[in-house]
Design a protein that fits this description.
Length: 249
């Protein structure tokens, strides 16, 4: 059943890519331009200069695309079909998220390839980046579940996707060094798994070091985010089913 649903979601997403290919190409072109400015203005001596942008691009899209998709399903009147599927709604969201995640990874790979060809930039990689990134993604997924539930209840939640996306760019130090941020903002940023993941990944690429203690701390932080996010999702989702889904736009 899960494999079948995953194939259906992947097919649906590929059809969407084919239908709105111009929008996706423009989006990738803008990403290349923004990434070029970011990469060329970063110290070339740091092997990890691109890590912050990759984390932000993948994880912020993971957060915002989910609520946007649910909002579109409500507008098209197909949300009920999702809710009556013979699998839990949260599992369906997980499958959708995995599909978005995979497609966005391919997009980032193409962007990095284009930047390498255009500017001759060499990107340093390490296989241990993968488990670090997956742990950070686990925590962000908890936040994704909360936004999905809020979008079910309040459709206009999806309207704040840009604010959330660029807020993450600012908070995590992906572009602005955290040392330059106010103390309160630094404290808030350090509570995010994304920030912790960026810090660990940069240390891994720049110094070749991976602290097991920091990795365990990231894992614990992400599990807390996931557990809290799932609990809030269930609470808001149940209230939405009792009081009805808001369809005002």
């Amino acid at each position: 059943m899960i494999r079948q649903v995953m194939r259906v979601e992947l097919k649906k997403y590929l059809i969407e890519l084919k239908t709105y290919y111009a929008d996706h190409l423009v989006g990738m072109a803008m990403t290349v331009i923004i990434f070029s400015v970011f990469a060329l203005s970063s110290p070339s001596s740091r092997a990890s200069f691109y890590i912050g942008f990759v984390y932000w691009y993948l994880l912020s899209s993971l957060v915002t695309e989910s609520s946007t998709t649910i909002s579109m399903e409500k507008q098209m009147g197909t949300l009920e079909q999702l809710l009556i599927k013979p699998i839990p709604f949260e599992l369906l969201i997980t499958i959708k998220t995995m599909v978005w995640y995979g497609v966005n990874v391919i997009k980032v790979g193409l962007v990095l390839l284009l930047l390498s060809l255009i500017w001759g930039i060499q990107f340093s990689v390490h296989w241990l980046l993968l488990p670090v990134f997956l742990l950070a993604s686990l925590g962000i997924f908890g936040f994704t579940l909360v936004l999905v539930a809020l979008t079910l209840k309040y459709t206009k939640t999806a309207s704040f996707e840009s604010l959330i996306s660029y807020g993450l760019l600012f908070l995590t130090g992906a572009v602005v060094p955290q040392d330059n941020l106010p103390t309160v903002i630094q404290w808030l940023a350090n509570t995010l798994p994304m920030t912790h993941g960026i810090r660990i990944s940069r240390n891994l690429l720049d110094n070749g070091q991976l602290s097991i203690a920091e990795l365990l701390q990231l894992g614990l932080q992400s599990l807390v985010y996931l557990a809290v996010g799932y609990a809030l999702f269930l609470m808001i989702y149940k209230k939405s089913k009792k009081s009805g889904i808001d369809r005002n736009y």
